[in-house]
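[step 3/7] inverse_fold.run input=structure_tokens len=68
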């Protein structure tokens, strides 16, 4: 995908809802549920629970840095 200019904004539609969850104070489990839902329902990728948990960890770390 990185070398395909048409795919540069492929994931942009996922950013706003995730940021909204973060700014609303979503906890780890809410983020994981949302990420798993995206992977399963929109991307057709089942079995992504562990990856979603790691991403949620990083998102929460980022939120802590951004908000102090």
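[step 3/7] decode complete -> sequence:
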């Amino acid at each position: 995908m990185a070398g395909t200019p048409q795919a540069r904004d492929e994931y942009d539609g996922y950013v706003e809802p995730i940021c909204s969850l973060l700014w609303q104070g979503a906890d780890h489990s809410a983020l994981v549920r949302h990420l798993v839902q995206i992977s399963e329902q929109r991307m057709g990728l089942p079995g992504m629970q562990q990856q979603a948990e790691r991403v949620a960890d990083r998102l929460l770390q980022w939120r802590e840095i951004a908000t102090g």
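[step 4/7] annotate
Helices lie at 12-23, 28-42, 49-67.
The longest helix spans residues 49-67.
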